[in-house]
Specification:
heterodimer, A: alpha/beta, eight-stranded parallel β-barrel, 19% strand, B: 7 strands, 34% helix, elongated
């Protein structure tokens, strides 16, 4: 099972220091022995999430330049950008060689400190998947060749607790989503949805905020071992002090 | 019905600060139902303006001030007073305000905030059910509008933030996609359950400004 940290790009910290600390963090995770890198070698080792911080594309590029072999995924949401801006990001990601993207609808601004912000939601994650994988509206014609349509490994963040979640997963599989990231909200996900995803030969990860991990990451992994996941993505808020570094 | 709410009267007073002779037009349709522009509210505004030292030149409630044909007929009842009027407070939705402003060619001041197309539960209690967006998708969703009822306006939900039953944003309300699913199941609309909505064409929303 892979253990992958996900972190938002820094707000006030210098990005060069941030990158250095990320590398130390990855070294620390490796030392714990929790991350089985042989299980899913194509999986990203770290996920950089774009929120209210330094431009994530810049960070992906800089980290790739400094750590050539580091497999980075770029996570973004449908809340903050319209289709033009998203396509611009995808074109940039392709040019800098970042193949792994993770898309979510994104938490509504009303539930954040930016509660007066206008959310975008121009396209939803099925919409962006159909643009990428089905060539919807030919937005990427001439930019991504047909034989390169699978350039991106698209991970879709979903909930997996109800029948309607299962339906959304099925639709995402039908239009070509590559991976599924199940948002853990404190309740166990529906194992049948996970089984269905696995039966379709798609990878499935559990996404958990570190605040949900009461004890150690090891305990959390053990508690969810029966789900037969490909990995657990742990959202950390501080690359220096987090669930991996605390004693 | 189009729901409006009363504006803070300070904003109205400020907008009228340069004017002395004021007319008041209410809406006897939607704004009347939601208690923002009926004859009672027109009377209240008249009293307020008079107490503020303004000269109220006329008051009138028009059945549908958003309908130019009705407006043209009804405004004749106050055409003499209108001559001597500097500004008009309009107690209707934004469409009524703009229609009247265009028609009379005088300063108009909106007395309400326009909200949304609403279902009336009781007088004073309304539910937003329609955003008047562009292509209506109710035939494919079990008859509930996910664009209006989902705070994210998603076509293909639910989002990842619900808790298994309720909405991420309005935690005391059921996620509309759960309701939509249940209704499609109830009506055996299997084809709609598997339907994937393409991203909206916002070009249609621009075009609709003139149909």
């Amino acid at each position: 099972m892979r253990i992958i940290p996900q972190i938002e790009t820094p707000v006030s910290e210098n990005y060069i220091n941030f990158e250095e600390n990320l590398i130390k963090l990855l070294g620390g995770i490796e030392k714990t022995g929790l991350d089985n890198q042989n299980a899913g070698q194509d999986s990203p080792r770290i996920i950089l999430e774009q929120n209210f911080g330094v431009n994530g594309l810049l960070l992906c590029k800089d980290l790739k330049d400094k750590q050539g072999n580091l497999n980075i995924a770029y996570a973004f949401n449908m809340r903050d950008k319209n289709r033009i801006s998203i396509l611009s990001d995808l074109i940039t990601l392709k040019q800098i060689g970042v193949k792994d993207i993770i898309v979510s609808e994104g938490i509504h601004p009303l539930k954040t400190v930016f509660n007066a912000a206008k959310p975008v939601y121009d396209v939803d994650i099925l919409g962006i998947t159909s643009i990428l994988k089905r060539g919807f509206m030919n937005y990427l014609e001439g930019i991504v060749d047909k034989d390169e349509a699978d350039f991106f490994n698209l991970g879709a963040v979903v909930s997996a607790s109800t029948a309607v979640d299962g339906l959304k997963v099925k639709k995402l599989i039908n239009i070509g989503a590559d991976r599924f990231i199940i948002n853990y909200t404190g309740k166990n996900p529906d194992e049948n949805i996970i089984k269905y995803i696995k039966s379709e030969k798609k990878e499935v990860f559990l996404y958990v905020k570190e605040s949900y991990i009461d004890n150690s990451p090891e305990d959390f992994i053990k508690a969810n071992w029966r789900l037969n996941l490909d990995g657990i993505i742990i959202k950390i808020t501080d690359e220096k002090a987090n669930v991996f570094t605390r004693q | 019905m189009f729901l409006t709410e009363k504006k803070d009267v300070k904003e109205i007073d400020e907008a009228l600060s340069r004017y002395k002779k004021i007319g008041i037009i209410g809406c006897a349709s939607c704004a009347s139902v939601c208690l923002t522009g009926g004859s009672k509210e027109v009377g209240e505004m008249e009293k307020h303006l008079a107490a503020s030292g303004k000269e109220v030149t006329f008051t009138i409630s028009i059945d549908e001030p958003c309908d130019k044909r009705v407006l043209k007929e009804d405004i004749r009842f106050v055409e003499d007073e209108m001559e001597d009027t500097e500004a008009v407070v309009v107690l209707s939705c934004g469409t009524g305000v703009q229609t009247i402003g265009e028609f009379i060619g005088k300063k108009v001041v909106a007395g309400t905030d326009s909200k949304y197309i609403a279902q009336t539960e009781h007088i004073g209690e309304y539910n937003a059910l329609c955003g008047g967006c562009d292509e209506c998708r109710l035939n494919f969703t079990g008859g509930v509008c996910t664009i209006t009822l989902c705070p994210k306006g998603l076509l293909n939900g639910p989002c990842e933030g619900h808790n298994g039953v309720n909405c991420e944003v309005y935690e005391d309300k059921e996620c509309v996609f759960m309701k939509s699913y249940d209704l499609m199941k109830k009506y055996s609309e299997e084809e709609n359950l598997s339907k994937i909505f393409n991203p909206r064409d916002y070009g249609l929303s621009v075009k609709r400004t003139k149909i």
